[in-house]
Structures are given as C-alpha cells and as structure tokens.
Design brief:
alpha/beta, seven-stranded mixed β-sheet, 11 helices
Length: 335
C-alpha cells in the first residue's frame, strides 16, 4: 500500500510523509521535531519507522525541525549539495570554516561516534521534554541575528554534539542532483528544478509500487520542464499560494510583494488555475492545493479558482480536489 500524508503546508512549516513497500520518507521538516512527531501520530504514522528525510530547499519553513528530527531518529538527510551548503551557512553564518574543512571534520567525527550512534540508547522516537528542542529554537534565533557571536568550537564528546556545539551535524548526509533519479529503499524519486529564490530548489515525482506522486511547491511560475514532470500522475500536490488582489492590497511591504509575485516567488491561484485548464493532463485521482498563504489567500478562493479551471474541461471532473492545511495534517491518501 502507498500512503501520502501532508502533515503541514504553508509559510509556517511544510512536511509530507510518503510511504510504500518497506520504506517511509519525510519530504521537508519545516515543523519542530515534537510537532512533526505529534502530527505523524495523529495521522497514524509511526515516526520511528522513518527511513530518511528529503529536503526540497533550505528556506526555514522547510528545514526548521530538520537537525533535531534526524538526530533523534538517526536517519540520513538527502539534499542537493548546494542546498546543504546553504542550510549550513544559514545555521552558522559567521563560522570561519571552508566547506572542504567542514566535510573532513565530519568524516573524522563520524568515525569517533559510530559506536554511540549504533547504540539503541542513543536513538529515541520521542521529542517530548527534550532539551535539544530548546537548543534548536535558540540556535535558529542566533542564526537569524546578523550580529550574533560566533559559536564556540565543538568539544570532543563521547556522543553526538548538541546543537550548540555543532548545529549542522547530522547522522548522515546523502546528495542527489536535479534531473538524476535516485531511490531510497522502495521509493524512487525524480527531482526536477523549480524556479524559486533558493540555492538549488527542486520538486519531486515519487514512484512507488507503480504509483506516481507529483510534488511541486515554492515556484514562481510553471516552466516547460515542470509541466513535463507533472504528467501521468496518480496524485498532484501543487502550490496555490496567493490571491493576486489580496496580496497587492495586503499588509506586506512592497519589496516582499515583489518577491512573491516574481518568477522566483510563489504561484498565485490564477497561475495554478491556468496550468490546470491548459497544461494539466487530468490523470491524477487527487489534486492537492498546497502552501496557501494565511495573509494573502483564502481556502475558498483557491478552491473556486481550481474548480473553475477543471470544470472547463469535462474530462477532468473525476479529479478529487483537496486543500492542504497549515495547522493540522491532511487525512492520509492511500493507493
């Protein structure tokens, strides 16, 4: 059985569980570890069975709980190399260390920690009451402050370092490249480049047990390469971020409005509707509208725009239209 569960979608955090066969992965970890685990349990997913975390890009609403979650479960994190570098720079913006030096340091530390990582006592699927959560919050605030002091060098320890010692340490890091399919257990992933203001942002088509799941959020427009990827799907998760009038009349500074409206910003309801009415092939059993802005959109507006686009093509009426939410998980979709 294949399951697709959106745990959260929006500017405050994004995360989705994809499972099939003997494999379960988390695409993005934009909520705290504690909240991710809580929502997984609400959706009937066991956090302890996660095999990996896959990151689309380094923006905070996609990586906020990444380090703590990966450490707690002792699982690898998959990035593009550019995204990994950008994530590290965000967490330690003033650390004086080259990327090559950091990689070499991690290799040396990994050899020292391997015994501890393999120990059952070093892993836990419960974040409740863990001091590392508080450290993560403190570190995120420090990283976001330009004048923050450089963190002290991490001392040699018997186990994995705390976030204060090394906020970028992960149990394992794996790289993938856009345009080059790869697999994690029973799940095949085909990453594709999307236009967004991040280091190397990607969307995915996940294939498991012959089910194809398309995943594309955080893109300013839909270029031909993305249109091509979003064909012949069983499920399509697509951004419908803002209503144009609400954004233009809303409270954001003009510079932020320009960013959102740009070709490396976010898809409007109208842009999503245009794709559904003209370039979408109608094959997906489910369409999920995602990453809705809480300030510049309304679920009703996103739904109406998409429904009108689909109603203009009678053959597409069999598609089931769902809206992902920010504050609660979407009911799991099974195939």
């Amino acid at each position: 059985m294949v399951r697709f569960t959106v745990l959260a979608s929006g500017s405050k955090g994004n995360s989705t569980v994809v499972s099939g066969g003997r494999t379960r992965i988390l695409i993005d970890a934009g909520l705290s570890c504690r909240e991710l685990f809580r929502r997984m349990k609400l959706a009937g997913e066991d956090p302890a069975t996660l095999d990996a975390i896959v990151i689309t890009h380094e923006h905070q609403d996609h990586v906020n709980g990444l380090a703590v979650t990966a450490r707690k479960l002792g699982i690898p994190v998959y990035f593009t190399e550019a995204t990994h570098r950008a994530w590290m720079r965000w967490l330690t913006p003033r650390r004086q260390m080259t990327y090559a030096q950091w990689v070499e340091l991690c290799r040396k530390q990994a050899a020292e920690r391997q015994a501890e990582l393999d120990s059952p006592e070093s892993e836990s699927a419960d974040c409740a009451g863990d001091p590392e959560e508080a450290e993560a919050d403190e570190q995120l605030q420090t990283a976001a402050t330009p004048d923050a002091e450089d963190p002290a060098p991490a001392p040699v320890s018997a186990g994995p370092p705390s976030l204060k010692e090394d906020p970028t340490w992960l149990p394992a890091v794996e790289y993938f490249q856009s345009g080059q399919p790869f697999s994690i257990g029973d799940i095949g992933l085909s990453p594709f480049t999307i236009p967004h203001d991040a280091a190397d942002p990607v969307g995915f088509v996940c294939t498991v047990e012959r089910v194809r799941l398309g995943f594309a959020t955080d893109l300013g427009y839909i270029p031909p390469n993305v249109m091509q990827q979003l064909q012949n799907l069983d499920l399509l998760l697509l951004e419908s971020n803002h209503d144009l009038e609400m954004l233009r009349d809303g409270p954001y500074p003009w510079s932020v409005k320009q960013r959102v409206l740009s070709r490396v910003g976010h898809l409007s309801n109208d842009a999503t509707a245009e794709f559904l009415s003209s370039a979408y092939d109608g094959q997906a059993a489910y369409i999920i509208l995602a990453h809705l802005s809480e300030n510049n959109n309304l679920p009703e507006l996103a739904r109406v725009a998409a429904e009108r686009a689909l109603m203009g093509r009678a053959s597409l009426l069999a598609n089931r239209l769902l809206l992902a939410e920010q504050h609660q998980p979407l009911s799991p979709i099974s195939f």
